[in-house]
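Weekly puzzle thread! Below is a chain. First person to post its structure in C-alpha cell form gets bragging rights.
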Amino acid sequence: MWIVVLGIWVVVFGVFQFMKLVQKNGFAKHLPLLNPAYPLLGNGLMFLGKPDHEKFLNLRKLTSIDYPLTRFYLGPRVMVGTTEPEIAQQILTDPAWMDKPFIYEFFELPYGLLTSKYDIWKSHRKALSPAFNMKILQSFIPVFQQFSQKLVDRLAAHPEGTTIDIDADVTTCSLEIVLLTTFGFDSSVIQECQEIGSSIER
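Winning reply:
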C-alpha cells in the first residue's frame, strides 16, 4: 500500500515540477529554437562528449538563425543567446542582470572578478574602476596591437589548410598583454609566457 502512495506522490510531484518549469520557461517560447533539442536533455547532445572543435561549430549554429535572440536548453533549463552587440551591451550593463546565472558555478571560481556574486563583484569593481579610466585604457592600445600582430604572425606560420589548436597561442597572447599592461614586465619575462600558457592548458 505504501508503495502505491509513494508512487502517486512521486508522479504528482513530478507533474508539479514539470508544470512549474514550463511556466518558468514560458517567457522564451516565442523565440526560435536551436535544433536538435530533446526532452529533458535539451540541446545537451550537441555538446556532451563532443570534441572541442565540434562544440564550437555547434555553438556557431546560434549565429545561423536569422533572429536577434535564440533559445536553447541546457537540460530542462532554457537559455537565451544573442549575436547582436546592442542587445549584449544592454544585458551586460543593466543592473537587473548583474547576478550571475547557475552556469557560472561550473567554473568553480566563486570569488573571481567575472564569476563572483553581485555583492562581491560590485565592491571589487568599485575598487578597480580607477585603474580602468579611458586615458589608461587608450595607452594600452599599442600593446594590444603589438601582441595581436605577434599572434597573427604565429598563426600565419602554420601551413595553409592544416587544422591547429589555437588555445596555447591565444593563452600566450593574453598572458603577454596582461603581464605588460598590468605588471609592466619586460620582454625577458614575457618569453616565459609560452611555457606558462602550455602549463595552464595542461
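Puzzle host: Confirmed. Bonus trivia for everyone else. Residues 19 and 199 are 47 Å apart (CA to CA).
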